[in-house]
Amino acid sequence: MMIDWSRERVLIFAPHPDDETLGCGGLMSKARQAGAEVYVQFITVGDTADVSPKGFSSADERHGEIKKVADFFGWRDWHIAFPGDEYHLKLDRLPRFELANAIERHSPLAISELEPSIVIAPHRTSYNQDHQVTAEAIHTALRPSNTKQRHHPRLALTYEEAADQWRYDMAPSPQLLVELNENNIDDKILAMRLYGTQIHEHPHTRSEQTLRSLATLRGMQGGVAFAEGYHVMRCLA
Question: What is the domain range of residue 164?
Fold first, then answer.
């Protein structure tokens, strides 16, 4: 299928800051260069103690990184639905009803408010509990109904992340490949570098070599130089 990105309003859901770039960095570069409106709805962020290069990153640091990445890509807007340590890495404790309602109607970037033509979500087979519950809540928010009563995005996709590819029940091969060029891949890498608390050296799922390798693999599968892979939840041609 051919997508005229200049006509699209794209809403990307990211459980945490950097997920949108890991999964959709090339697409965001391509879409923005064509003139698309791009919005990012983050679900949560908080202080993080992990095995990142720093070992610890504060919510304030992560907010600063978001602003740099938003300016770099030229997002039309972004928002964090459930900020703070009460929710970060604990979204599985949040009632599905509350999370789905935020995604569907109770956020400045809710589907009903923004009426996007394309919605892109994380895939439900992620190993991360925040990703899993976010994916399921978005699935609920996008449920079929009367289009005269609720907005239905024409295209609903899920993105992949290299960290999720080792599961025994991992998702099948992507159904949609978005062709990218070298500049789109460079933009994706540069944006990940702006997430300074999150990018890693190789071998790591968030390393430059991993991201380039996955884009090369997906490109090969489509007979082009580079691509990002997506799974299709809905497609109205």
Answer: 8-235
Q: How confident is the model at residue 166 (pLDDT cuts 50, 70, 90)?
A: confident
- Looking at the domain assignment, is residue 66 inside a domain? yes
Under 8 Å between Cβ of 231 and 157: yes
Q: Classify residue 204: in a domain, yes or no.
A: yes
Question: What is the DSSP pairing of strand 37-42 with strand 77-80?
Answer: parallel
- Does residue 32 lie in a domain region? yes
> Cis omega (within 30 of 0) on the bond before 174?
no
- Kindly report, residue by residue over 183-205, the tens digit of the pLDDT: 999 999 999 999 998 888 999 99
Tell whether 67 is covered by a domain.
yes
SS3 110: coil
22 CB contacts (<8 Å, ≥6 apart)? 161, 162, 192, 206, 211
Q: Average the pLDDT over 19-33 and give the result.
A: 98
For the chain, helix (H) and strand (E) counts, in that order, are 7, 9
Q: What is the pTM of this model?
A: 0.95
